[in-house]
Amino acid sequence: MSQLEQLQEQFHHVYPVPVKWGEMDAFQHVNNVTYVRYLEDGRLAIFEQLGMTEDLKATNKGPIFASLNCDFLAPVTYPDTMLVASNIKQTGPKKIVLEQVIYSEQLNQAVFKATSLCIYYDYADLRSCEVTPSISTAINSL
To answer: Residue 1 and residue 104: Cα distance in Å, rounded?
Structure first.
């Protein structure tokens, strides 16, 4: 089984992101800040899949980004397409953790990995809150 096939089997969601020419820096590779943007694209895609946008509109409660731990594994250059693979799990009444890997189609390998913590937040009361029941159920169904 190829690394890409393993990635697609092990992760709940895979989201393609094309590398843009302007994302490269003076060192002729994709700038490190760009990887965080790729993670955001993947994070928002899995949030959409789980119905978090609609739930946020209905409840005024949703995730807020709290921390990021990441490792760069290989440099990427234009042209390429990144596949942002995401897993999500609820690790407490107020916490959601995302495990993400960015895979380069051009290099045929993982080039970045990260673990992110999101805290559920009540945007009306401006404080943390428990993950809403509908989102908790959606996460557990994955």
So the answer is: 17
What single letter denotes the amino acid at residue 98? L
- Is-contact 120 61, C-beta < 8 A? yes
Domain 3-141 fold: Thiol Ester Dehydrase; Chain A (3.10.129)
Domain locations in the chain? 3-141
CA–CA separation, 31 and 11 (whole Å)? 25
| Cβ atoms 14, 91 nearer than 8 A | no
pTM over 0.90: yes
Question: Tens place of pLDDT for every residue, the chain, 142 residues?
Answer: 687 788 888 998 999 999 999 999 999 999 999 999 999 999 999 999 999 999 999 999 999 999 999 999 999 999 999 999 999 999 999 999 999 999 999 999 999 999 999 999 999 999 999 999 999 999 999 8
